[in-house]
Amino acid sequence: MTLTNGHSTLQADSETATAYQPLSSIWEGSDSGLLDAMLKFYPTIDPDPILDATYNTGRIWRGSSRVVVSMDIDPQYEPMIVADNRTMVGVPDNEFGTVVYDPPHVGPQGRDKSVKRFDVDFGATMECGKEHGWTLSYLYPPFLEQAKRVLKPDGLLLAKITDMVNSHRSRWAHCDFMRMAEDAGFTVCDLIIKVRTGPMRSTKWKTAHHARKRHCFWIICRNGTSCERGH
Ligand SMILES: C[S@@+](CC[C@H](N)C(=O)[O-])C[C@H]1O[C@@H](n2cnc3c(N)ncnc32)[C@H](O)[C@@H]1O
User: Fold this and answer.
1) Which atom of ligand 1 is nearest to the CA of 52?
2) How far is the CA of 96 from the centre of ligand 1 (A)?
3) For residue 17, is it within any domain?
4) Which residue has the CA at smallest separation from atom 13 of ligand 1?
5) pLDDT digits (tens, 9 = 90+) for 196-223
6) pTM
7) Domain that holds residue 29
């Protein structure tokens, strides 16, 4: 648009202001609200079909009208696809507009099972001991390879990652994930802090030396070399 006078400038600014719907880098609402906002804000191609590669009971979709293809390694959740997302056997290449990933973010919590079904409810069933450097980040590279394979070019990968303290040290899973996603050929486009209402608790913890986490990260990656539309 060619601007010829002050009036036109004002009009152009107000047009831009109504067209632009900002997305806050801090989200205090539900996962489903944030997913919906991200699925409107970031796509450069049709975000459907959507694969949720760690479906569990699909809590993050509660209240959403999105149609999702569900995958989980654990058949008890009766996902549409029972599969290990590190191999995704039988899933075709270039199939999805979006892959959503909410992997386990703590290892098995021993006695908690008898108090609150922590392991089952949070999918905290994968090994997270010394042989894995006390983190679950070893799960990411084989998953990322598969996510890249099943995503269409420029498709989105939306990952919910929570840092953890394990064996008396902070383990920065979100840094691992972002580095590994870039290594796998994704562009890490953005990072949103999602605030949770109450922290996860374990009856095993008698004292604290690290801040009680009341947030996680949603990491937005694109299966391509560009961060934004048209670049
Ligand atoms: C944190 S929970 C996901 C919660 C889910 N987003 C929800 O809203 O209900 C992690 C899930 O990942 C699944 N999982 C763990 N490793 C997996 C793998 N290698 N392949 C597929 N699913 C896996 C677990 O069985 C568990 O159900």
Assistant:
1) 6
2) 19
3) no
4) 54
5) 876 666 666 678 888 888 899 999 999 9
6) 0.85
7) 23-199+210-222
